[in-house]
Amino acid sequence: MANETDSTSSVTWAQGPRVAEVPSEPFRGQLFINGQWREASGGERLTRTSPAYGVVVGDYARATAADTEEAIGVARVAFDQGEWPRMSGAQRAAVLNRVADLVMARQEEFALLELFESGKPISQARDEIQWAAELWRYAAVCARGLHGDSYNTLGEDMLALVLREPIGVVSIITPWNFPFLIVSQKLPFALAAGCTAVVKPSELTSGTTVLLGEVLKEAGLPDGAANILVGTGPEVGAVMCGHKDVDMVSFTGSTGVGKALSATAAQTLKKVSLELGGKNPQIIFPDCDWDAAVDAVVFGTYFNAGECCNSGSRILVHESIAADFEQAVIERARKVPVGDPLCEQTKVGAIISDGHLATIQGYVQGALDAGARVSLGGQALDVQGLYMAPTILSGVSPEMAVAREEVFGPVLSVLTFGDLEEAISIANDTLYGLSAGVWSANIENCLAIGRRVKAGTVWLNTWMSGYPELPFGGYRESGQGRELGRFGIEEFTELKTIQMHMGPRTGWWLPKG
Q1: Is 459 helix (H, G, I), strand (E, B) or coil?
Q2: What are the pLDDT digits (tens) for 408-449?
Q3: C-alpha dist (Å) from residue 502 to 161, 371, 388, 506
Q4: What is the pLDDT of residue 512?
Q5: Residue 353: half-sphere exposure toward Cβ, Cα within 13 Å
Q6: Which of 252, 288, 456, 491 has the least C-beta neighbours within 10 A?
Q7: Are 191 and 168 spatial neighbours (Cβ–Cβ below 8 Å)?
Q8: Is the per-residue pLDDT at 357 higher than 70?
Q9: Which 8-state DSSP code applies to residue 234?
Q10: CB–CB of 325/362 below 8 Å?
Q11: How big is the CA angle at 132 (ends 246 and 98), to the nearest 5 degrees?
Q12: What is residue 206's predicted lDDT score, i.e. its pLDDT?
């Protein structure tokens, strides 16, 4: 693509050589069941066309319900009779660390496969693989440190232990936006706890998860401890959620699908962990670090083309600085390089599918119909591939759908507030509660937002920082349960109380002699 700013769309196109060529043949994958690669029982295959290049880049065996039943049965046997749950934490940690090493040895291979299937820029794909590897390493630490509790204060004749035991067979269902990162927020922690798993990636971005199967095998994970199926929700996901031999479901995706999944899982009362949508505000006060806040808003909106549950897709700006701050964001956003994901300069790549691109455009049109105006972008780009211009919507009011619902695209809604109380009210005026941020030099403003905004993560004078040690998850319709940190491994455990009595026991009832 040429290095120019289009006068109609105000988009700056990335420039520079490609780091690789678009593949002439797709990546081919099979099902990974009981440590073996095999074709699907129905003989069908599922293909993936790159949203950036319009060519088939993935070709996978398409799992059936029967394949899913088999994989669950294998995972059940591996848990009930296999060696993995009975290994020491140190032994499990050694395998997880080997996985991390092997992933990083193939980082570019993983990154390119993710790029071709998702349309994300190469720099972001590489970062995702590296971050994912760090999660495997942290899970290895958790495998060695998982522990329960003891009670020595119950009297001289009683000692009690609280054990954390692996919950059992876990169904893991992951989305298309960060396929390798999100499977790495789940699978290594389940394995660290001693669970076994069946994994279904999104059919749009299955490649890196399938490639992970090769790494797990090479790292020495026992057969059956992790099984990988490519398929659709109705064929595969429904069985994974409802099967009686599955003890837990861990899902990341849309809130609507999460609700349906919960209803299915409820039939067997299995545990469910959900990481769902978000409508995350950044609240900007007049005393903010101006340049840092502007940069964070642009990053928070356009990173991964806005296809991110943590996207800062709405900003709440104090009315005294709103016009100037918005103009600064517009000027910065115009300079963000859009285009070929294989160019290292690119910051905004392709949209995942034509259907999703239409959904994003629908939200923009709905905002215009409701009285908002486009200050930047606003349309799909007339180029090869599926691209949406970085977009800024001004004059957005809190009741508009674009201010309350998850757009999941490179679209920023600008709202204003008059005081702290109004900012908190607007921030909380949504069904979601995943993350939020505040920009102010006043620590009282920061702590008030941190305490009173209903969100699982609140960033103070930063945005989208992340560490394996810290839990991640949301309030309300953003989900339930937590990933990462010590809480991440505890999600995959059951608590068991053991009470030990010492000495003679007093009878409950003895007849009078």
Answers
A1: strand
A2: 999 999 999 999 999 999 999 999 999 999 999 999 999 999
A3: 14, 75, 70, 11
A4: 62
A5: 10
A6: 456
A7: no
A8: yes
A9: I
A10: no
A11: 85
A12: 98
Rounded CA-CA distance 459/242 in Å is 37
Give the SS3 label for residue 409: coil
Round to whole Å and give the CA distance between 148 and 166: 12
Q: Which residues pair with 251 in a beta bridge?
A: 173, 274
pLDDT given at position 4: 37
Q: Which two tokens stand for residue 92?
A: 């499990």
Rg of the chain over Cα atoms, rounded to whole angstroms, equals 25
Q: Which residues of 30-43 are buried (b: 16+ CB within 10 A; e: fewer)?
A: bbbbbbeeeebbee
DSSP track, 451-472: HHS--SEEEES-SS---TTS-B
* Residue carrying the six token digits 């103009």: 327
Could you tell me the two tokens for 116?
A: 């071709």
Q: What single-letter DSSP state applies at residue 222?
A: P
pLDDT at 8 over 80: no
Question: How many Å apart are CA 482 and CA 488, to the nearest integer?
Answer: 6
Helix (H, G, I), strand (E, B) or coil at 100: helix
* Contact residues for 422 (Cβ-Cβ < 8 A; gap 6+): none
What does the pLDDT look like over 370-409, one tens digit per residue?
A: 999 999 999 999 999 999 999 999 999 999 999 999 999 9
421 carries an active-site annotation: no
Structure token pair of residue 398: 């809190």
Distance CA 263, CA 55 (A): 37
- Between the CA of residue 27 and those of 24, 164, 203, 212, 482, what are the distances in Å? 10, 40, 13, 13, 33
The predicted-structure confidence for 40-93, as pLDDT tens digits, reads as follows 999 999 999 999 999 999 999 999 999 999 999 999 999 999 999 999 999 999
Residues 6+ positions from 310 with CB-CB distance below 8 Å: 278, 280, 300, 434, 435, 457, 464
CA 84 to chain centre: 26
CB of 208 closer than 8 Å to CB of 114: yes
Which domains does the chain carry? 22-276+478-496 (3.40.605.10), 281-460 (3.40.309.10)
Tell me which of 275, 477, 483, 491 is the catalytic residue. 275
User: Residue 195 CB: number of other CB atoms within 10 A?
Assistant: 29
Q: How far does Cα 355 stand from its chain's mean position? A: 21
